[in-house]
Protein: Synaptophysin-like 1
Organism: Seriola lalandi dorsalis
Amino acid sequence: MMTGFRLNLSPLKEPLGFVKLVEWLTAIFAFGSCGGFSGRNVLSVFCGDGRNETLNADFHYPFRLSQVFLIIGNQSLCDHSVTTTYMVGDSASSAEFFVGIAIVCFLYSMVALLVYLGYMHVYKDSDFGPIFDFVLTAILVFLWLVCSSAWAKGLQNVKDATDTEGLSATVALCKGSNITCEVTEFANMRTLNISVVFGYLNMFVWAGNAWFVYKETRWHSQKFSSPSGHGRQQVPAPI
């Protein structure tokens, strides 16, 4: 059996290779739209005497909000001394899990495309290649479901912690009777919303690809092959 590299672009014209290329692209959009995010919400503090002051709530990936300063050192707001205050919340585990799965899928898609385009003759001649490909694809479908759901919940926690209610609950001064706080400028979280969409899209794409990979395994070929050793039953000739 020849195991050398043989460049053949024809798998890209078939579902097995074309869907793998789509997976590679959607993985890029998934971790790119989440991993590179940074934003700022502006909290306006309206004092009782008509003055207003502002606080900047800066947050970014991986969204460890509990380590982000909202107020640094002792500051004076509305003639009140305010101590160091951190934001509340931590969505780092779900965000890093999501980005990690996306990077793993990105790398695996590149390796799989290399095999499809250069070593397809080896891939089809062995049982290990298609079975390994199918099992890993099925695992990644499940992981996409888990990490996308976790990140969707984590993103909602980020939104809750950085809106008017979340930031007002963090700053003790905002709980005063004659002082009101309101977020007047919101960060654009469109890319984060898109990352969740691409997470679930990846799940469906990988699920569809699992079927085409399954067709390359011996399990599929054995299912549809006719049993050997069972010929047509002969009818005895009449006497």
Residues 228-235 have pLDDT under 50 and may be disordered. The two ends are 55 Å apart (CA to CA). Strands lie at 38-46, 52-60, 69-71, 75-77, 80-82, 85-86, 180-185. The chain has one domain: 9-217.
